[in-house]
Amino acid sequence: MKGAARASLPFSTEAFEAKALKPNKQTNSRARKDVMDLTAQEKKDFTDGILALKATPSPFFKKNMLSYYDSLVRIHQLAVIQSRKQGWGIGHKCPSLLTFHRKLVLLLEEAICTVMDKQVAIPYWDWTNEASIPVVFNEDFM
User: What is the rounded distance in angstroms from the CA atom of residue 78 to the CA atom of residue 10?
Assistant: First the structure.
C-alpha cells in the first residue's frame, strides 16, 4: 500500500522545470492583482505572455508538437485522467488539490516570465464582483 499512497504521473515536474525554465534575471517578487486593478500595460503583458506561450513549442512534450501553454494544460489533463482511472490522484478529489493547482499556476507564471523576459504576475478574478465581468470579457483581455 506504500506505493498506492503516492500518486504519480508519467512525468516529473522537477525535471521539466530544470529543462524548461531558464532563470529569470529579475527578482521573483511578483504581486498578483485583481483583474479590476490591472493597468493597460499589465493586461497587455499578461495577454501577450499567454499568446507567446501558445506560439512557443513545448519544452515538455516535444514529440506531440504541443505549445508551451498546451503542455501545461496536458499536465493538468493527465492528472485528472489518473484520478479517474484510480479513483484518487493528485489533481482532483484529494487533499493535494490546492497544492497541485498552485504548482500549475506557478509553472504558468514562470513560463510567461521566461518567454516575455520580464516579470509578469497572473491576475486573479473575483467572479463574485459583477462589475468585473465586462473587464474580464473585454477585447483587451479575453
Answer: 8
Residue carrying C-alpha cell 499512497: 5
Cα separation of the two ends of the chain: 45
CA 76 to chain centroid: 9
The number of CA neighbours under 13 Å toward the Cβ of 13 is: 21
Per residue in 72-90, pLDDT (tens digit) is 998 888 888 777 777 666 7
Which amino acid does the sequence have at 35? V
Q: Which residue has the cell 463574485?
A: 128
Q: How far apart are CA 70 and CA 48, in angstroms?
A: 16
Distance, CA of 5 to CA of 89 (rounded, Å):
9
Cβ partners under 8 Å of residue 51, min gap 6: none
Amino acid at 104: L
pLDDT band with cut points at 50, 70 and 90 for residue 4: very low
Q: Is residue 117 classed as helix, strand or coil in its secondary structure?
A: coil
d(CA 90, CA 101): 9
